[in-house]
Amino acid sequence: MSFRESPLPGFYDDARVKDVWRVPYQERAADAQAWRETHHIQPSSMDGKRTCLVLVDVQNTFCLPDFELYVGGRSGDGAVEDNQRLTKFIYRNLASITQICATMDTHQAVQIFHSIFLVDAKGKHPEPYTLISAEDLEQGVWRINPALTRSIEVDEADAYLRYYGRQLKAGGKYDLTIWPYHAMLGGIGHAMVSAVEEAVFFHTVCRYRQPDIQIKGNHTLTENYSVLKPEIMRGVNGEVIAPKNRDLIEKLLSFDALIIAGQAKSHCVAYTVADLWAEIEARDPSLAHKIYLLTDCTSPVVIPGVIDYTDSADEAYEGFQSAGMHLVKSTDPLSEWPGFFEK
């Protein structure tokens, strides 16, 4: 497979990446058709090396400064600059990306990580960014809001909550975090960043390949950072809470190369990659070499003066690299990526 980088289309504007706007689909479709012919880009079905670009939660809620859970990193400009680089990466490498798989964090108000779900002894809800440890739950500092117990259909609600905390701790996962209401189904925050959506649509028409949009995070009783599986899959009595996404796992591992970017590096990206790593280790550890992590298209959760997950995110990426995955930059030509053009 030979490397062929495309120029940026004239309609792309760095300054618009931080804004919300309507993609002019019909106009972009015509642009993409002309682009395919001008730059001699083949349909993705003709790719000798099949490459999937995985975009984790590139949504307004995480990526735009005025939205609910903006991932600014330590610089404060993290997700905006990440998506400027990511969008340009898609356009420049249209001929080398077989398919785009985009995950969509999808929530409603009544979920275990939102304030409404829990109360303390006085009936007060936890504030956003409250970290709730397994010990807190064992001691009854927080319990499931009794006004919700019938509507969420959980047996022995407080026993489940204590079990949930123990499971998180035993799995070495983050404490239960109360997040601001975000990625709300039907809301503007749930939508993909407009500039990235436009690039994905352009890729679809140019390469004749439908993107794979994956919904995650919509289970009431568990967090779901990773697109591959929720934090807790079974309840106190072994009942299924939420299943593993086995179809997506098989699909991703069938590609010759996976390129992964998105938000946030410390949470949904890291957890998705960690779950993918676990699947690879159980099958063939050498498969880790076909995974490329775009280090300049992802940022960690940092809430100044509250929480900073930069170090834990960097530590996770060091572990991925040690396992054989490649840490690369979107600004480097694919021809310089180690082993990328080896089938």
Give the tags.
single chain, 343 residues, alpha/beta, six-stranded parallel β-sheet, two-stranded antiparallel sheet, 12 strands, 32% helix, globular
Descriptive report:
It is a single chain. This protein is an alpha/beta fold and 343 residues long. It has a domain at 115-177. The chain is 32% helix and 13% strand. It has ten helices and twelve strands. The chain has helices spanning 25-38, 60-63, 78-92, 134-138, 149-152, 157-170, 194-207, 246-254, 265-283, 310-322; strands at 51-56, 99-105, 118-119, 131-132, 143-144, 176-177, 212-216, 257-262, 291-294, 302-303, 307-308, 326-328. The strands form four sheets. A six-stranded parallel β-sheet has the order 7-2-1-8-9-12. β10 (302-303) and β11 (307-308) form a beta hairpin. α9 runs parallel beside α10 (310-322). The N and C termini lie close together (8 Å). The model has no long low-confidence stretch (mean pLDDT 95).
